[in-house]
Every structure is written in structure tokens, then in C-alpha cells.
From TrEMBL:
PANTHER family: ACETOLACTATE SYNTHASE SMALL SUBUNIT (PTHR30239), ACETOLACTATE SYNTHASE SMALL SUBUNIT 1, CHLOROPLASTIC (PTHR30239:SF0). It comes from the Bacteria. One of its GO terms (cellular component) is cytosol. It comes from Paracoccus aestuariivivens. SUPFAM superfamilies: ACT-like (SSF55021). The lineage of its organism: Bacteria, Pseudomonadati, Pseudomonadota, Alphaproteobacteria, Rhodobacterales. The gene is ilvN. This is Acetolactate synthase small subunit. Dimer of large and small chains.
């Protein structure tokens, strides 16, 4: 079995490079899965991941076709190219699964996530939190004399950066939806 490394495209011809030349990179992929909206389907999809030791970084599910009773599951996972292909093949074999799309390789896509952040603080920290929220185009959806709840939409990286800046200002709680994604174009 080949060793794994996290860096991308690390090929070197130096005699001092001790990395395994057969190592494969770990990649993050966003999968969009169209399924029947019925009891047990999500459990079967999750069971596929847990039963084989694959991790899910993000998971969102919602009904997208009320008349056809179909739901869309968006999964962000990581693995070597071979592992990602195995995941897609096994997802495709689950009976209520109609389509499996790897948005990471099928072309340009749009990914967004929603986050709610509670920031507690007074005085200058409160003013700074509002200033940063404005820069990130976050909306204040709740306010008390001692805290704000901000709503922000964007890429996972944008939400991570917002949280990093709010921590020293009194970030006390947060909730995130997970990634939703669509391919761009026709």
C-alpha cells in the first residue's frame, strides 16, 4: 500500500528528498448526490462512509424536488484519487441514489456555507467586532447589550477567517450549515 502525503504535486529529484515516490496526494472533493427522499437513505449513505473508514468534512441535505420526492446530499470528503473514485462508485451502487457528481473535477462550481456567530463583549471589543463584521459583509441578526449574533455567507475559508478574527473579541458560540454547491454554467 502506498504511503500518503498531504502536500500537492510534491515531486523532487533531489538525493536528499526522502519522500516516497509512490505516495499519493490527499485531495478534498465536493460530491453532489441526488437521492430519493425516503426514510433510511441518508443513513445508508453515511453508513457507506463510516463502514469503510472514510471521513465526511461537511454534509448537507435538503429536498430539492417536491413532486419527484428527491433530495440533494452535498458531501465534502478527502482522500487519494483512488479513494475518491471508490467512494463515488460505491455511492452509485446504492439503490435510491440517482446521480453522483464530483463537482471538484466536473468543472467550475460555486460553494457556499452559512454561519451564525455569537460574539460577547463590551466597549472597544464590541466596536471592533462590528467593524470586522462590516468588512466581511456579515449581518447582525440579533443584538443585546452584551452580545451580537452575526450571520455570514461565503466559502468555508471565509467563515474560518471570520471565526479566527472574532475569537479574541469574545466569540462564544457558532453554528455552521456545511457546504452547499452547484456546478456553474449550463
Amino acid at each position: 500500500m502506498a504511503a500518503l502525503k498531504i502536500e500537492k504535486g510534491a515531486s523532487s529529484h533531489s538525493a536528499y528528498d526522502l519522500r516516497d515516490p509512490n505516495a499519493q496526494t490527499i485531495e478534498s472533493h465536493t460530491l453532489a448526490v441526488l437521492v430519493d427522499n425516503e426514510a433510511g437513505v441518508l443513513a445508508r449513505v453515511i453508513g457507506l462512509f463510516s463502514g469503510r473508514g472514510f471521513n465526511i468534512d461537511s454534509l448537507t441535505v435538503a429536498e430539492v424536488d417536491h413532486l419527484g420526492h428527491r433530495s440533494r446530499i452535498t458531501i465534502v470528503t478527502r482522500g487519494t484519487p483512488a479513494v475518491i473514485e471508490q467512494i463515488k462508485a460505491q455511492l452509485g451502487r446504492i439503490i435510491p441514489v440517482h446521480e453522483v457528481h464530483d463537482l471538484t473535477v466536473e468543472g467550475p462550481s460555486v460553494e457556499r456555507e452559512l454561519g451564525l456567530y455569537k460574539v460577547s463583549g463590551k466597549g472597544e471589543k464590541r466596536v471592533e467586532a462590528l467593524r470586522i463584521a462590516e468588512i466581511f459583509r456579515a449581518n447582525v441578526v440579533d443584538s443585546t447589550l452584551e452580545s451580537f449574533v452575526f450571520e455570514i455567507t461565503g466559502t468555508p475559508e471565509k467563515l474560518d477567517a471570520f471565526a479566527d478574527l472574532m475569537r479574541p473579541l469574545g466569540l462564544s458560540d457558532l453554528a455552521r450549515t456545511g457546504v452547499v454547491a452547484l456546478s456553474r454554467g449550463a
